[in-house]
């Protein structure tokens, strides 16, 4: 989708789209949720948006029970009817894209023009999986040559999917889990992060108004206790989690105690490999965007390590600096803003701490950035300059640990083997990027990278029809495409004696 040049909304009017509640169960907002009161701060100016009551354990129990009651009817519905419903949801999300984007921008600071694109891409996921509802087939197993038996297998839904998403891309994070789960015939209980508590509730309301039966999408926004309750609820058949590795361990323990399957999409420290035959100007500019400005670096698949062959190293650094210093850092509702604030004061302080530690330890040389942005309109928000460290030690914490902020580490290499060794020398394995005009090298290096998703000479667009998932500490299982659908289904085999 083309990026909009202007977005017809400002911060004041955006507030009119904030939902009245952060909990949505059985098709309705829950005004008397049982969790703690939460005052949410807009990261663009540090001002409170308002106060909402988060979900408590009783709300999780109610949501799962409602999902269990609603799911059998949905699963037994004619697949073509489910397709119509999901297409209606997709259409409604497109119609309300600006409203949804405004809430995302208010709650976590994503620039409005980027947030609008995200809302449309969330709609694309619902439309894509709507097309799968009547195409889920099974197989016939050849078990008896004499025709004495007929054996067949069919995919069936788990029932209730417990989904947990992070705050950095709340609409697309919701869509990649909820759309395939519903297409497969499941109901969903979704726990968004308390750092982005509102857009998911609004989306659930829009879906209900578009005709999604009550109880199929329930939103229980809350803290870690809500997530643990959801994972341990005996009514949840499978858990799909996106987030950090520490939280994943708690989710994994809860799932193991109940012996239920999980799909994990976790952290990343993705490497982008620039070989000396690439289009240096284009590759370096994109590296600056993806490594610092895109969502203020708050994305697990973003290439935050840039590996550059020595023959083009100095030229790449010149382009990186020039590009990073032209980014418009500003209020997220300004349509000219390329890079907005980070999502919270907690993130702001943590990222600046990482930068200071890297400087103190000599992990690399600071090329540009590294400070808060303190213009007259930005002093109260959580803005950090696009930051680029060069000559980075590939074994330093700066190069091996996820920052989740606008900090790019640049590392030189001599040849292909060294580049692959450095790229694979971290615990993560989410994404990889290869820049070269040599077709053989492109395929060869892509095959050697320990990553579940590799992009060659382009940005990672994550289309809904393509499977995406991490290796190593970046998770297991996939989202997207046919494989992502089948992850949320189990196989039933029927053996019939003839």
What this model shows, in words?
With 498 residues, the protein is an alpha/beta fold. It has 2 domains: 11-266 and 475-497, Aldehyde Dehydrogenase, Chain A, domain 1 (3-Layer(aba) Sandwich), CATH 3.40.605.10; 271-463, Aldehyde Dehydrogenase, Chain A, domain 2 (3-Layer(aba) Sandwich). The chain contains 16 helices and 22 strands. The protein has helices spanning 11-14, 57-76, 79-95, 97-108, 112-130, 170-183, 199-209, 224-232, 245-258, 280-293, 313-324, 345-361, 397-400, 416-423, 439-448, 481-486, and strands at residues 23-25, 28-29, 37-42, 47-53, 139-141, 149-157, 160-164, 187-191, 217-220, 238-242, 262-265, 271-274, 305-309, 365-368, 387-390, 407-413, 428-429, 431-435, 453-456, 471-472, 475-476, 489-497. It has an 8-stranded mixed β-sheet, sandwiched between helices. Helix 2 (57-76) crosses helix 8 and helix 5 packs parallel to helix 6. It starts with 10 loop residues before the first helix and ends with a strand. Residues 1-5 have low confidence and may be disordered.
């Amino acid at each position: 989708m083309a990026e909009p040049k202007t977005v017809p909304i400002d911060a004041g009017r955006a507030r009119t789209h904030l939902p009245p509640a952060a909990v949505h169960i059985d098709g309705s907002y829950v005004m008397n949720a049982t969790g703690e009161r939460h005052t949410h701060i807009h990261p663009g100016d540090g001002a409170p948006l308002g106060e909402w009551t988060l979900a408590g354990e009783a709300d999780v129990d109610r949501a799962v029970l409602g999902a269990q009651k609603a799911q059998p009817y949905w699963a037994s519905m004619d697949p073509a009817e489910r397709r119509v419903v999901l297409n209606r949801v997709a259409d409604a999300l497109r119609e309300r894209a600006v409203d949804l984007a405004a809430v995302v921008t208010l709650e976590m600071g994503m620039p409005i023009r980027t947030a609008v694109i995200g809302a449309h891409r969330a709609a694309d996921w619902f439309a894509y999986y709507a097309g799968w509802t009547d195409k889920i087939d099974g197989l016939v197993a050849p078990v008896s040559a004499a025709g004495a038996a007929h054996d067949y297998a069919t995919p069936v839904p788990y029932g209730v999917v417990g989904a947990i998403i992070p705050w950095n891309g709340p609409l697309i994070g919701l869509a990649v889990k909820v759309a395939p789960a519903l297409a497969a015939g499941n109901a969903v209980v979704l726990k968004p992060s308390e750092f982005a508590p509102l857009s998911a509730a609004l989306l659930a309301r829009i879906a209900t108004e578009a005709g999604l039966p009550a109880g199929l999408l329930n939103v229980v926004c809350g803290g870690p206790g809500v997530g643990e309750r959801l994972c341990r609820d005996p009514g949840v058949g499978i858990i799909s989690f996106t987030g950090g590795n520490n939280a994943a361990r708690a989710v994994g323990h809860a799932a193991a105690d109940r012996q239920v399957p999980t799909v994990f999409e976790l952290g990343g420290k993705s490497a982008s490999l620039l070989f000396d035959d690439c289009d240096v100007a284009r590759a370096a500019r994109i590296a600056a965007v993806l490594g610092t400005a895109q969502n203020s670096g708050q994305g697990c698949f973003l290439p935050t390590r840039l590996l550059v062959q020595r023959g083009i190293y100095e030229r790449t650094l010149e382009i990186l600096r020039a590009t990073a210093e032209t980014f418009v850092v500003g209020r997220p509702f300004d349509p000219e803003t390329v890079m907005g604030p980070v999502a919270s004061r907690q993130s702001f302080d943590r990222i600046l701490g990482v930068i200071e530690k890297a400087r103190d330890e000599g992990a690399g040389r600071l090329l540009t950035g590294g400070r808060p942005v303190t213009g007259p309109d930005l002093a109260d928000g959580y803005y950090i300059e696009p930051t680029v460290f060069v000559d980075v030690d590939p074994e330093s914490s700066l190069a091996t640990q996820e920052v989740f902020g606008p900090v790019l580490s640049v590392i030189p290499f001599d040849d292909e083997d060294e580049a692959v060794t450095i790229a694979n020398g971290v615990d993560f394995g989410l994404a990889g990027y290869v820049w070269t005009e040599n077709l053989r090298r492109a395929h060869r290096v892509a095959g050697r990278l320990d990553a579940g998703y590799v992009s060659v000479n382009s940005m990672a667009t994550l289309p809904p029809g393509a499977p995406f998932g991490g290796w190593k500490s970046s998770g297991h299982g996939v989202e997207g495409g046919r494989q992502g659908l089948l992850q949320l289904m189990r196989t039933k085999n029927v053996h019939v004696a003839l």
